[in-house]
Design goal:
Layout: E1 12-17, E2 20-25, H1 30-36, E3 60-63, E4 70-71, E5 82-84, H2 88-104, H3 112-120, H4 133-144, E6 170-172, H5 182-187, E7 197-200, E8 207-210, H6 226-230, E9 236-238, H7 239-246, E10 255-261, E11 270-276, E12 279-284, H8 298-302, H9 305-308
Parallel strand pairs: 1-5
Antiparallel strand pairs: 1-2, 3-4, 3-5, 6-9, 7-8, 10-11, 11-12
């Protein structure tokens, strides 16, 4: 007697990656299929626990028969697909994207992954014009003296803006923002469902902002800090880390990382406690933990400050 249940069987598709035939489950993206085979593809706006938004174009690969490069993070594999992940065309594209970003925003403090890709593609940060700390300071001096058009404080189109410090938990330094939109996704349906962070403007005017552009303490922000966790360029940073960097005291070589369980409730979130000089300087959460997948609440992320005195 039939139960009336339909069983769907996922089949494997054969594709070619860099001249090697591999198979991957139907429905996988090119990025998933390649990483399954240990083939790394650079990404900036993609993260495993977030919905792909196709903004950075760093994961572009060459697909035989396609006129243009295609985004590996969202393009689904097809049977017989021939893919090249490191052709000259692909490498030139990635190098230029990173160099264009480095010419418009401050990329002096980036994630270890992003730093390794910049080194791999021999990125010349000054190819399209110099962008140094002294240059940024000079622009800020002009701006404060009234000789430079002052941006609205949210625009990501210029480095000539100071960090926004309006709370005790974290700072927003949009001179470093590359518009990867990860913070928007983490604040939205992918994790927090708070929607305190959004994209304002269009085209060259696009920028990350709060709803209606209000100051952060007046927004819907619940200070979970998940936006900080996903930011690849330190545009969002723990206030403690920011203060230590300003004093030239931030030193990761002297820091220890201890993995433990959050004590505030029974969910069992895992924490990574970063400590320097017997003081907790920030808290992160491991991506490989089934409960948190890198995300935390305000208590888990910021509920340590009483320990520092």
């Amino acid at each position: 007697m039939s139960s009336g249940m339909t069983v769907s069987i996922q089949r494997n598709l054969k594709i070619s990656v860099n001249g090697v035939e591999v198979s991957a489950p139907e429905g996988f993206t090119i990025l998933q299929a390649c990483r399954n085979e240990g083939i790394d593809i650079p990404t900036l706006c993609y993260l495993e626990n977030l919905t792909p938004v196709n903004t950075c174009r760093l994961c572009m690969v060459e697909v035989e028969g396609s006129r243009t490069l295609v985004p590996a993070c969202s393009r689904k594999i097809e049977a017989g697909m021939v893919i090249r992940t490191e052709s000259d065309r692909v490498s030139r594209s990635r190098k230029m994207i990173l160099e264009l970003l480095a010419s418009s925003v401050d990329m002096s403090i980036v994630s270890a992954e992003l730093a390794s890709w910049m080194a791999l593609y021999e990125v010349d940060k000054e190819r399209f014009g110099p962008l140094t700390a002294s240059g940024i300071d000079g622009e800020l001096e002009k701006m404060h003296a009234g000789h430079h058009h002052k941006p609205d404080g949210n625009s990501a189109s210029t480095v000539a803006q100071p960090a926004k410090i309006d709370n005790d938990q974290y700072i927003r330094d949009y001179s470093r923002c590359v518009l990867c939109y990860k913070c928007v996704e983490a604040c939205g349906t992918d994790a927090q469902n708070t929607f305190a962070i959004a994209v304002g403007g269009r085209g060259f005017e696009a920028h990350i902002t709060t709803e209606f552009g209000v100051p952060l303490p007046e927004s819907a922000c619940v200070y979970c800090g998940n936006c900080i966790a996903v930011c690849p360029t330190s545009a969002l940073m723990f206030k403690i880390e920011y203060d230590l960097r300003q004093e030239s005291k931030w030193d990761e070589s002297r820091q220890t990382i201890t993995r433990t369980i959050c004590p505030y409730c029974g969910v069992g979130c895992n924490l990574e406690i970063h400590a320097q000089d017997n003081r907790i300087v920030k808290v992160t959460s491991p991506m490989d933990h089934d409960v948190t997948k890198g995300m935390l609440c305000v208590k888990g992320r910021f509920g340590f400050e009483f320990l520092n005195g």
